[in-house]
Design the sequence.
């Protein structure tokens, strides 16, 4: 019997393999296949250890692919107080026929890239064509990936960034200024970013709303990709009530996204007013976006994205 070694693909390997443009193409494919019901994707399973970390398990298979992927993610925001990362992720890839393990892919960069690509797709559909300021709240890996993806989706003349940590703000501005073709500056408050941005990215692990929803200007598009626990939220109910709502998965949003679950429980919004991104990619006319309306894309991550991205990355080795 021949025993094949399991391929180990590093974060650096993922970075070299995935360009922003390719990532957006792969994300589009994943959402469209999901909307066409060509995906096996059980609802994300998660639990939190008392006094410890939260764990997520995300399996998926796309019809026709030779692989099955399972991503395991651990999250502990308290790790930021030490030298440990607050989030870690690994994607395990198996042969869909034999069940043999094929590869283990470091998941942090892949997760950030595919999440930002999802936001770029949503921005392309939902944001106004004429944009001036991009606002980013958060300064971690997701924020960095979103900067490049948003610059691919729209033309901006400036970028504003905010983090409660002055050190993190300044570090992000230094790094972003090397990659961006427009000025990147630090804002003094989250509300300043919310008030002045045409496209807004929320990429934090906050458990509470980052700003008052009435501060967001009419016409703004918001990509909210943090706060993925049922009792955590980056946006308040006021903002959700004012907005056209789009999610990556309606079933998952209702079950696991505090940004959606809490306003639903308050009866401030209803399920009938929420659309899925995949549906809009198939038929953009499902939403008629007027200039003075706010749009929100809320995503917590889908297994099908990991499956499509992991299959592509593995094919390059």
Sequence:
């Amino acid at each position: 019997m021949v025993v094949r070694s399991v391929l180990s693909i590093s974060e650096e390997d993922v970075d070299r393999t995935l360009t922003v443009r390719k990532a957006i193409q792969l994300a589009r494919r994943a959402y469209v296949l999901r909307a066409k019901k060509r995906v096996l994707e059980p609802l994300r399973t998660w639990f939190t250890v008392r006094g410890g970390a939260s764990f997520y398990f995300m399996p998926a298979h796309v019809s026709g692919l030779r692989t099955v992927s399972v991503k395991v993610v651990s999250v502990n925001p308290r790790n930021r107080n030490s030298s440990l990362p607050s989030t870690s992720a690994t994607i395990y890839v198996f042969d869909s026929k034999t069940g043999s393990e094929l590869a283990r892919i470091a998941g942090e960069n892949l997760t950030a890239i595919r999440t930002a690509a999802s936001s770029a797709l949503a921005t392309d559909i939902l944001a106004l064509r004429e944009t001036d300021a991009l606002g980013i709240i958060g300064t971690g890996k997701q924020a960095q990936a979103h900067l490049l993806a948003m610059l691919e989706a729209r033309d901006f003349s400036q970028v504003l960034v905010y983090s409660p940590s002055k050190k993190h703000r300044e570090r992000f501005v230094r790094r972003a200024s090397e990659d961006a073709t427009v000025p990147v500056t630090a804002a003094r408050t989250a509300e300043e970013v919310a008030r002045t941005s045409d496209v807004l990215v929320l990429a934090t692990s906050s458990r509470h709303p980052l700003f008052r929803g009435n501060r967001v200007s009419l016409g703004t598009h918001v990509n909210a990709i943090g706060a993925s626990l049922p009792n955590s939220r980056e946006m308040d109910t006021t903002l959700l009530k004012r907005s056209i709502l789009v999610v990556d998965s309606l079933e998952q949003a209702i079950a696991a996204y505090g940004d959606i679950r809490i306003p639903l429980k308050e009866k401030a919004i209803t399920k009938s007013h929420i659309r899925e991104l995949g549906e809009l990619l198939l038929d953009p006319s499902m939403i008629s976006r007027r200039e003075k309306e706010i749009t929100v894309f809320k995503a917590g991550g889908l297994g099908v994205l990991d499956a499509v991205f992991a299959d592509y990355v593995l094919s390059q080795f």
Summary: The mean pLDDT is 94. Residues 108-126 form the longest helix (19 residues). Residues 241 and 268 are 6 Å apart (CA to CA).
